[in-house]
Amino acid sequence: MEIKRSNKLHDVRYDIRGPITTLAIQMEQQGIPVIKLNTGNPAAFGFEPPHYANSLDTQLQLTAAYSDAKGLIEAREAIAAYESSKGIRNIDIENIFTGNGVSELITMSLQALLDNGDEVLVPSPDYPLWTAAIRLAGGTAVHYICDESAHWFPDIADIRRKITSRTKAIVVINPNNPTGAVYPKDILESICALAQQHNLLIFSDEIYDRLLMDDSKHIATASLDPDLPVITMNGLSKSHQLCGFRAGWMVISGDLSQAGNYLDGLTILASMRLCSNVNAQAIIPEALADPHFARNTLVPGGRLYEQREQAYAGLNNIPGLSVVKSKAGLYMFPKIDTHMLRINDDERFVLDLLREKHVLFTHGSGYNWHAPDHFRVVYLPEKEVLANVIERLADFLSSYRQY
Ligand code: PLP
Known about the structure:
Layout: H1 19-29, E1 35-36, H2 60-63, H3 73-85, E2 96-100, H4 101-113, E3 119-124, H5 129-136, E4 140-147, E5 153-154, H6 156-161, E6 167-173, H7 185-198, E7 201-205, E8 230-235, E9 247-253, H8 260-272, H9 278-282, H10 284-288, H11 303-316, E10 321-322, E11 331-332, E12 335-336, H12 338-341, H13 346-357, E13 359-360, E14 362-363, E15 375-378, H14 383-399
Parallel strand pairs: 1-13, 3-4, 3-6, 6-7, 7-8
Antiparallel strand pairs: 2-9, 4-5, 8-9, 10-12, 11-15, 14-15
Helix pairs in contact: 1-13, 4-5, 4-8, 11-14
Bound molecules: pyridoxal-5'-phosphate.
């Protein structure tokens, strides 16, 4: 009997852990060590989680039970305080939901919103879960361009052009994965103005907001207009190096007088999964009392900062590659001069590099980028490993051609 996947999965992709990872796992099973730079998973690279993540068993009686479907009150109060400190006004803890990572909340919030054929504006390049979750919910992801020649900021004219009568929402990923861009106020204000004008809900994915470098400042989209309905997503995976805990949240803010029906829908979906991991929720108050846990790694001399510097210089030194400097987070998105290096298939490039040099990157088209001319680098490994990765890449590209 053939067992087939449902039609709902037509066009749903998540290449970061797709065929490239399958090959990497096969290679490892054959005893070939692979340097895997495909996921932003700090603890896997030796970044230590906070000590209070250890205090879980002292709260066992509390965390062994289901919590309220939206999350523990203490966790939601801490989230409200944190997001208020970012300038988001009038947060009601009834409009805060905890999730098994932001990932679950992305899927949930779109399932609750979209009817078949509804459109959502999503950045290109994107964090591909957004596009996948929109498609799974029956919607259409319409990609707006982020402009590499303008620090990878969203192209406001392109967003405007792509709004139709079916557009329901716009996704903003700031700080950005995969580009590392941090958006200035005027760009965010323009997006808010378009949302206001066309009645669009804004999803603002801010999971990298505490991983800022240089003089970058993060502005919460929802802080710019107290009336605009915005769903702000955040969590502890990156800022506290706790990816495996699955601790995320979303805050729905703005004038919600017309949103009761949607909020009821969200409550149904949250209740259907009973609650998110309560162990992970239980450390949210302590973690958010210490929001800048990773700060030491982000300043000159700090691990993440120095690794970014090294990746940036190393990549730009390779003939045929250029990269815009990441200002936050864990990633950069280098451009390949495809004409010079004769590359016309970015996934094949990543697979060939993996086979030959045992280094795993992810291809740009996996981030819904329209041309085969980018790939994403995770700069989490120690400097010696990064130096070695750059050397392997440079050596590979010195002779690799696809046509
Ligand atoms: N949003 C962005 C932009 C991400 O890069 C990630 C993970 O890499 C997530 C959301 C999901 O994070 P989590 O489910 O661990 O909270």
